[in-house]
């Protein structure tokens, strides 16, 4: 049975990703900053008959929490097949490039960028034990620098400074990480789940968590002949599914 760790999985897209991967036969370690909320999410999934799931306490903003989660998971398994770096924040709004306090930039980057790096580095040894390791970095269509320079893009005027910069940085990390592992069996990709109705955006998005999670799951379960180092976005590129960086 393949194993997966999903950060920020006690609600919204992360939770639905856990549900869909459970339905495909994966054993899910449901990462949650608040272990009580994580356990509540696990109880809900088990009530649906999805039993191969456990909650793991992990705060991606705290290296000690990440290290504790790695130690805890290492006592349970020797192989991790999939890591989904899903945890993310938007930060206080509005975010203009000159007026947004630097603390907002640091808070957003701590979760959306540095947290991903620290989690990936902490669990890479378990991932390397997998025959077909997968890393999915949940990004945003707003992380595309190419499209932010296209006045015809539908989101051209949507530019929350710290969030956009953090996701662009995450995309760049995905590229260099995939390149670093290009001669291995790793598949490492960034996935834009789309503008989805969640607590993250006060349920303003038109998309569903089911569709958003399906995009993440598709990358998490990609085959040996699938691409690596790609930016998947049905929203930015409905015809090809691959967004410009």
TrEMBL record:
Pfam families: adh_short (PF00106). Keywords: NADP, Oxidoreductase. GO terms for molecular function: oxidoreductase activity, acting on the CH-OH group of donors, NAD or NADP as acceptor. PANTHER family: (+)-NEOMENTHOL DEHYDROGENASE, SHORT-CHAIN DEHYDROGENASE_REDUCTASE. Belongs to the short-chain dehydrogenases/reductases (SDR) family. This is Short-subunit dehydrogenase. The lineage of its organism: Bacteria, Pseudomonadati, Bacteroidota, Sphingobacteriia, Sphingobacteriales.
